[in-house]
TrEMBL record:
CDD domains: CYP142-like (cd11033). Gene3D superfamilies: Cytochrome P450 (1.10.630.10). Belongs to the cytochrome P450 family. It comes from Sphingomonas oligophenolica. PROSITE patterns: CYTOCHROME_P450. It comes from the Bacteria. This is Cytochrome P450. Keywords: Heme, Iron, Metal-binding, Monooxygenase, Oxidoreductase. SUPFAM superfamilies: Cytochrome P450. PANTHER family: CYTOCHROME P450 YJIB-RELATED, P450, PUTATIVE (EUROFUNG)-RELATED.
Amino acid sequence: MATQLREAEVPAVDPLDVSRPELYRDDVWQAPFRELRATSPVHRVEHSDFGPYWSVSTYKPIIQVESLPDLYSSQVGGITLADFIENSTSDVRMPMFIAMDRPKHTGQRRTVAPAFTPSEMVRLSGNIRTRTAEILDSLEWNKEFDWVDKVSIELTTQMLAILFDFPWEDRRKLTFWSDWAGDIELVKTEELRLERLKHMYECGAYFQNLWNQKLGKPPTPDLISMMMHSDAMAEMDQMEFLGNLILLIVGGNDTTRNSMSAAAYGLDLFPDQRAKLEGDPSLIPNAVQEIIRWQTPLAHMRRTATADTELEGQQIKAGDKLALWYISANRDESVFEDADSIIVDRPNARRHLAFGHGIHRCVGARLAELQIATLLEEMGKRRMRVNVVGAPERVAACFVHGYRKLPVEISKY
C-alpha cells in the first residue's frame, strides 16, 4: 500500500516538459517544441526536475521578454532553469554580468567588450587562421577520429587561452572547467553539486594566481588585465570574479565549440547544401549564421518576472520562472522557412536568436563567427570534406546543446 501511495505521488511525465535531458541526448526535442509553437507558445509546466516554469517557444514573445529586462530579470533567479539553493553547502552564489540587471550589468559588460571589437577581430584574425591551419594540417586523411576532440575543443580552448593569457600547457583545464560549469544536470544531486563546487574553486584559485601575477603591471589586451584595470570590475570579490570567469569560459568554449561540431555534422546531414558551399566559398559568412541558427548551442536562457504581467494571453506572476527557448525560436516556421534544414544561402539566417537579443546579447558573437568562418575557409582551401562515420554522442541536458563526440573521416572533394 505504501509503495502504491508513493507511486501515486510521482507526477506523470509531461510530454511538453522540454527540460528533460533525454530529449537532447537522443536528439528528439524537435517534436515537442513543434507542438508547443503550434498550440501553446507560452506554456506552463507544473512539474519538472527544475520545478514549475513557463516555456516561451516562439520568436516574437522571446524578443518581447528580452526587450524588457527590468520586468524580466536575469539577476533574480539566474540564467538557467536550475534554481539556487539557499543555505546549501553545495551552492554558492557566483555573480556574473550576464546574470545581472542594469546598471551593474552595463558597467561590467562594457569592461570586457573591448576584447571583441571589430579592430580586435582584425588583430586576432591572423593568429586564428594560423592555428586553424595547423590543426587541420595535423589531421589524418581517410582515417577515423573524433572531430569534437581534435578540432572543435582544441580550436576553442586555444582561443580561450589567448584571450585570458592562460598558460598554454594547461589550456585543457579550461575545457574541463567549462564542462563542469555548464552542465545543468549536475544540480540534481547534492554529491554532484559539491563536486562541481570543488572544481569551480580550483578554477578560481588558478585564475587568482594569474591575476596576482599581473598586479602592478601595465595593461595588456587580455580579459584578466581588462578586468583589473576597469572601474567596474577591479574591486570584484572572489565569488564575483569566479562567476565572471565561468561566464567567459563557458560562453567562449561551449558556443563556438558546438557550432564547429555542428558545421561538420550538419553539412554531412545536408550534402546538397555542403556541395553548394564547397562550390561557392562566398556563401561562408551566411553559412556560419545558418549553422549557428540550426545548432543553437545554448538551448535556453532563463528570466524571472519581477511583477505580475501578461505574455501572449498568459498571466505571469511576479517570481515566475520563464525559459526562453532559443533552440525553438530558431526553428519557428513563421520566421524561418523549412527551419529544420540547413540552407547555406538562407536569406534571413542572421535573424537567429542563438546569441540572444537586447542588452544580454552575446558579447563574443563576432569572435565566434570569425572562428567558425575561418575554419570553413581553411577547410575549403584544402578541399577538405568531413564525413560522419558514426552516431554522435550528445550532451544530455537542456542548457548547453552540443556534442561530446563525433566520429568522422576527412576526404578530398
